[in-house]
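Data deposition worksheet. Section B asks for the primary sequence of the deposited chain exactly as it was used as input, without tags or linkers unless they were present during the calculation. Section C holds the resulting structure in token form. Section D is free text for depositor observations; keep each observation to a single sentence. Incomplete worksheets are returned to the depositor.
Section A, Depositor: J.P.
Section B:
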Amino acid sequence: MAVVAITMLGAFFGLLVSSPVVILSLALAFYKINNRPFINTIESAFKYFTANKLYIWKKSEELEIRGKETGKKYSSLVVPNLSRGKLKDMNWELDVKKRDVPDKDIR
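Section C:
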């Protein structure tokens, strides 16, 4: 095709028209992406652009309106306030309960 384009259109326009075809054919023959042939990349790109896409997350208008009414930027997540004493007590209680539970594997 490149020879036909060069003879019919002249050297400059022939090379201008045939160069994308020559580059694509060389890429298909020799170029590899992630150690896979270039044709696989073209096939994957074609499937990606032509296939339906599933969007899981969509912003709902109800949540947006509710956030504007209250004027809060953060959610109303309640975080317990634990002091060092309470934390140590809870840790001790968990350790004691863990020791009280007999192991089922020991016979």
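Section D:
The chain has five helices and two strands.
The first strand starts at residue 32 and ends at 33.
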